[in-house]
Amino acid sequence: MTANTSPPISKFRRANGFLFLSGDLPLHADGSIPEGIEAQTALTLDRIEATLKSQGLGLDDVVSVCAYLTDTSDFAAFNRVYATRFNEPRPVRTTVHCGLMLPGARVELTVVAAERA
């Protein structure tokens, strides 16, 4: 998979009062990927926040996060950036060490947000 390949998925889906977002990657609009886990985490969260905002939600509405990291040594730096973006009570989270389909990506995040009543 390359930065210019669109997979056969939906960016998000609504169901039963929740908004489910597909995994998001640290891609700039031009398809480039920033260097380093901090920049990649921040960009990925920016992208997620923009998608949530387009649906009338924000990061405070996120109830669950699944984080995929390609390098376990990135865990502490990832957490530092992540902690600055979510307020208490923070979402539940699972973090998985794995390979990613996009070369150069060190992080992928998928989230579930609760829709506002």
Mind explaining what this structure looks like?
By secondary structure, this protein is of the alpha+beta class. It is 25% helix and 26% strand. A five-stranded mixed beta sheet has the order 1-2-5-3-4, covered by helices on one side. β1 and β2 (18-21) form a beta hairpin. The longest helix is centred in the middle third of the chain and has 18 residues, at 37-54.
Main features:
117 residues; alpha+beta; 25% helix; globular
Element pattern in H and E: EEHEHEE
Output the number of helix runs: 2
Largest sheet: 5 strands, mixed
Calculate the terminal CA-CA distance, rounded to whole Å.
38 Å
Residue share in β-strands:
25-35%
Low-confidence stretches: none
Helix content: 10-25%
Q: What is the 3D shape?
A: globular
Counting DSSP E segments of at least 2 residues, the number of strands comes to 5
Mean residue pLDDT = 95
Using only CA atoms, what is the Rg?
14 Å
Find the structural class using helix and strand composition.
alpha+beta
Query: Numbering strands along the chain, what is their spatial order in the largest sheet?
Result: 1-2-5-3-4
